[in-house]
């Protein structure tokens, strides 16, 4: 299958008001809606990461998503809607908490897990009694959902296990030849996936930290828990979010998190840079402010990727997947990545960084082979 790739980045600002859609954008989104209506898949931008969309009410179309991504069947999909009314049509109970969250954070990077209605096919919910719903904040995504007239099931548009795509190129690398259309619109602003908040139990619980922070949710809901990632290692633990048991965000190379003060981080970099052999490529991911001190007198680093400033952690976090994908492209074998404080967006950033790390549990240079 040939994949058509169309870039709407230039038209994006005009998309905010429907009447202002450029002819090019209007035409393309109509074509995309027709493809979706015919059961095909379309990749599109959202404010978090690119999504791979299908008609959420068509189980055959949704099946395609699993096939194309190589995704395990028990990992459920998020259903994207363009209005609260539409959300109410796919869930059985729209609670006060759901109303509060939707009013406060939609459209935006928050996914709500609620008891599902029967119109949602089992393939979407992976056999669970719940469904995950989200209203994305990207004008193209919203317009596409409105044009189709049905909710869109959309996981991140990557091959399962790879870092999520935050620009059109990433989607192209993973899915070209497998889907008919990729709508591009530059880099995703949040760059990390949405927060998945389970509202189906007695107390709200964050199953996946993301673009909306624990602090923001507590400010409007009061008590909110967050799933303890360590818990899932425990024997017999049944994850409430099936996706959590799979390894995600994994670069091809090994990743080690740089922790502690500058001196401690520097020592780790130095140690590994001396231990590597000449064929192994090594990359450092760090902040603009720490770069010079971290790498002082250290020479044999192949790539230095500056995530951004410590003064703007949201922006720095938005570049993480881009950095991991860059390292894959350059066939980097060892990535040394600086940690972020675990508060605000840092919780989601560290969640992804830890998942990307420790594939082989490397701790000492002599284990590098
Ligand atoms: O930002 C995002 O959420 C992006 C964009 C495209 O919207 N989508 C995304 O989808 O990240 P995906 O499929 O890559 O991740 C969905 C996560 C998985 O961890 C899955 O297990 C969880 O949401 N999930 C989906 N339905 C669920 C449910 N009913 N109960 C618990 N977890 C659910
Ligand atoms: Mg994903």
Structural summary, described in words:
An eleven-stranded mixed beta sheet has the order 1-8-2-3-7-4-6-5-9-10-11, sandwiched between helices. Strands 12-15-13-14 form a four-stranded parallel beta sheet, sandwiched between helices. The protein has 369 residues and is α/β, with parallel strands linked by helices. The chain is 32% helix and 17% strand. Magnesium ion (MG) binds at residues 155-156, 164.
Overview in brief:
It contains 13 helices and 15 strands. It is of the alpha/beta class. Helix 1 (23-37) packs across helix 6.
Write the layout of secondary structure elements.
Elements: E1 4-7, H1 23-37, E2 42-44, E3 51-55, H2 59-69, E4 78-80, H3 84-90, H4 96-105, E5 110-115, H5 122-125, E6 130-134, H6 139-148, E7 152-153, H7 168-175, E8 181-184, E9 195-198, E10 205-208, H8 214-221, E11 225-226, E12 254-258, H9 262-275, E13 282-287, H10 291-294, E14 303-308, H11 313-318, H12 320-329, E15 334-338, H13 345-356
Parallel strand pairs: 1-8, 2-8, 4-6, 5-9, 10-11, 12-15, 13-14, 13-15
Antiparallel strand pairs: 2-3, 3-7, 4-7, 5-6, 9-10
Helix pairs in contact: 1-6
The chain binds threonylcarbamoyladenylate (TXA) and magnesium ion.
């Amino acid at each position: 299958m040939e994949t058509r790739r169309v870039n709407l980045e230039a038209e994006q600002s005009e998309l905010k008001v429907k009447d202002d859609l450029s002819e090019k954008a209007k035409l393309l989104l109509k074509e995309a809606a027709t493809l979706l209506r015919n059961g095909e898949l379309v990749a599109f931008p959202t404010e978090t990461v690119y999504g791979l969309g299908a008609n959420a009410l068509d189980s055959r179309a949704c099946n395609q998503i699993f096939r194309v991504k190589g995704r395990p069947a028990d990992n459920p999909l998020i259903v994207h809607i363009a209005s609260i009314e539409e959300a109410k049509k796919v869930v059985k109970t729209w609670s006060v908490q759901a109303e509060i969250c939707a009013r406060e954070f939609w459209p935006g990077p928050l996914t709500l897990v609620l008891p599902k209605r029967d119109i949602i096919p089992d393939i979407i919910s992976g056999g669970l009694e719940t469904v995950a719903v989200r209203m994305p904040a990207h004008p193209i995504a919203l317009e596409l959902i409105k044009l189709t007239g049905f909710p869109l099931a959309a996981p991140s548009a990557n091959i399962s296990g790879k870092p999520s795509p935050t620009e059109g190129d990433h989607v192209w690398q993973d899915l070209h030849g497998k889907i008919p259309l990729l709508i591009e619109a530059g880099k995703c602003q949040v760059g990390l996936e949405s927060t998945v908040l389970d509202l189906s139990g007695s107390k709200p619980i964050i199953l996946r930290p993301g673009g909306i922070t624990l602090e923001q949710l507590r400010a409007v809901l009061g008590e909110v828990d967050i799933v303890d990632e360590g818990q899932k290692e425990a024997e017999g633990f049944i994850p409430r979010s099936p996706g959590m048991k799979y390894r995600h965000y994994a670069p091809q190379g090994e990743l080690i998190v740089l922790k502690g003060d500058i001196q401690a981080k520097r020592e780790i970099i130095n140690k590994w840079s001396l231990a590597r052999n000449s064929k192994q490529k090594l990359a450092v991911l760090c902040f603009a402010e720490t770069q010079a001190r971290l790498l002082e007198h250290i020479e044999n680093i192949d790539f230095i990727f500056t995530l951004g400033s410590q003064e703007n952690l949201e922006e720095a976090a938005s570049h993480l997947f881009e950095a991991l994908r860059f390292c894959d492209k350059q066939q980097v074998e060892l990535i040394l990545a600086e940690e972020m404080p675990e508060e605000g967006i840092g919780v989601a950033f560290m969640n992804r960084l830890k998942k990307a790390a420790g594939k082989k549990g490397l701790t000492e240079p002599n284990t590098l082979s």
